[in-house]
Design goal:
The chain has three helices and eight strands. The protein is an alpha+beta fold and about 180 residues long. The protein has one domain. An eight-stranded antiparallel beta sheet has the order 1-2-3-4-8-7-6-5, with no helix packed on it. Helix 1 crosses helix 2.
Length: about 180
C-alpha cells in the first residue's frame, strides 16, 4: 500500500515538473518572438511566408472553398463542428484562424503575460458581449477573446504588419479601433 502511494506521489511530482517546464518553454518562445520581432507561427507555418507545399505536414484538408482571390483550406480541430482555416492567395498562406481548446491555450492572461501589453484592442461584431480582438500586428498574431472570462476562442495569424495594413485585410472588415456603442 505504501509503495502504491509513493509511486502516485512520484508520478504526480514528475507531471508537475513536466507541466511547469512546458509552460515556461512556450512562454519563453513567445517572449523571444516579441522581443526579436519574429513572426508567430502555427505548426511552423507563417502567414505571408509559407507556401501551399508546406501545408502537406498538416495532412489533407477536410474541405476547400474557392474564393475570387484564392481559397480557404479547412483542417480538423478537436471539435467536429469547428475547423481551423488557412487562406491561400496565389501559392502563399495569407491568413490562419486556429480554434483553441486546451486550458493553457484558452487563457488570455497567459497570452498577454507571454507577449506583453503592447497589444491593440480591436472591436468587432461581438464586442457588446465582451469578445474583442487582441492584436499584435508586429509579430502577426491576434487573439479573439473575452478578457473578463479570461477565455481565448481563436488565434489568428497573418503577415507581420502595422495596424493600418492589418485592418485592410478582408478578415478584419468588421473590426475597428473604435469601441462599438450599445443600442439600448
Amino acid at each position: 500500500m505504501k509503495q502504491k502511494i509513493l509511486v502516485i506521489i512520484i508520478f504526480t511530482v514528475i507531471l508537475l515538473f513536466a507541466f511547469t517546464y512546458i509552460s515556461r518553454r512556450s512562454k519563453e518562445k513567445a517572449e523571444t518572438a516579441l522581443n526579436q520581432g519574429e513572426q508567430v507561427s502555427w505548426h511552423n507555418i507563417k502567414a505571408g511566408e509559407s507556401t501551399l507545399n508546406q501545408l502537406e505536414n498538416l495532412g489533407e484538408p477536410l474541405e476547400r472553398e474557392k474564393l475570387d482571390d484564392g481559397e480557404i483550406l479547412y483542417y480538423p480541430t478537436l471539435n467536429q463542428y469547428l475547423k481551423n482555416e488557412v487562406k491561400i492567395e496565389g501559392d502563399k498562406v495569407a491568413f490562419i484562424k486556429e480554434v483553441l481548446y486546451t486550458s493553457e491555450d484558452k487563457s488570455l492572461k497567459n497570452k498577454i503575460d507571454a507577449l506583453g501589453n503592447s497589444y491593440i484592442i480591436l472591436y468587432g461584431p461581438n464586442s457588446n458581449s465582451g469578445v474583442l480582438l487582441f492584436a499584435y500586428p508586429e509579430i502577426g498574431v491576434a487573439y479573439l477573446a473575452n478578457q473578463y472570462a479570461d477565455f481565448v476562442f481563436e488565434a489568428w495569424y497573418f503577415p507581420p504588419s502595422n495596424l493600418e495594413s492589418l485592418l485592410s485585410q478582408p478578415q478584419l472588415n468588421d473590426f475597428s479601433t473604435e469601441e462599438i456603442q450599445r443600442l439600448d
